[in-house]
């Protein structure tokens, strides 16, 4: 549920919350709400807390929009699970003591959840739970100690290298079933284009999904030397910036070719693949979104983030399959960001420029999660244009 201009203001009022028996004022048993009302309950309770602090309804509505729709959806799911857990124990999820929150977190930890997932649960509960001793649940000393203990008991394990080799994939993109570009199927063209755009732009899948082909949102420079892509109007990225930047793709060795290696590099060119994709799907396009589904049931309709992620993973797996190598395990679309960011840093590109392109608010993200050892020593890497 998104709290927008049509949201009835009275739902945020404290008076109506009491009249409807909201858990904000009650201290007894609160039955588990229906699944469809969970997010509404959470948003209403959070809004009521903000109103109680003296803020106007308009300000509260703006504050509630500070979270991305995906974050609100994730918090709603976690809040639903916590609400159900409290309901089975006849406890009020909005006003239960910190001990109940800790018991719930321990239950999740015993079920095998990681420290990072527990942090999401704490953030979701803190968004809707009443303050404890003047502090949010997430800042309660016992909760923070519990999370530190969970981190020691179950430290994260990050692989030092990705499960797939970039050189293998790039070599395979120059051969069937990914070439010749004019003759390959719609699905292989979708796989190749989405992979090359993810790799060359360093963007999240959500950012790729937001790209548009509407007039003035996609432009090619003369001779297909560059491509300029913009996200649809109103799109808010995971890390908002004051000045949205277009995605600028540089062509690799456009024809005429002087050497055989130049023609091979051109097979990896994201501008070439993008141009071929846009023209191929134009006759059956039913959406301004750049990436659209090619399947018979949703042909021409916008592709979801999950679909684009599958395309990127499929490109990697097919590359291995076409070269006769065993497919790697645990491939994720997000790994293209770490691969491209590490290569760019090794190529001497300033770290701040990498962060700007990837949409990271601070270089600390790269230092923590996108390390130089993601590239295996001696392996082939992306062309210098990436």
Named CATH topology of the largest domain = hpI Integrase, Chain A
Structural class: mainly alpha
Number of domains: 2
Spell the H/E element sequence: HHHHHHHHHHEEEHHHHHH
Number of helices: 16
How helical, in percent, are the residues? 40-55%
Unreliable stretches (pLDDT < 50, length at least 5) are 1-42, 372-386
CATH class of the largest domain: Mainly Alpha
Mean pLDDT over the full residue set = 81
* CATH superfamily heading of the largest domain: Intergrase catalytic core
Which architecture of the largest domain per CATH?
Orthogonal Bundle
- Shape category: elongated
Residues in β-strands, percent:
under 5%
Intertermini distance:
39 Å
What is the radius of gyration computed over CA atoms, rounded to a whole number of angstroms?
Answer: 25 Å
Question: Which strand order spans the largest sheet, edge to edge or round the barrel?
Answer: 1-2-3
Largest sheet data: 3 strands, antiparallel
- Extended strand count: 3
Region (Disordered): 1-26
Keywords: DNA recombination, DNA-binding
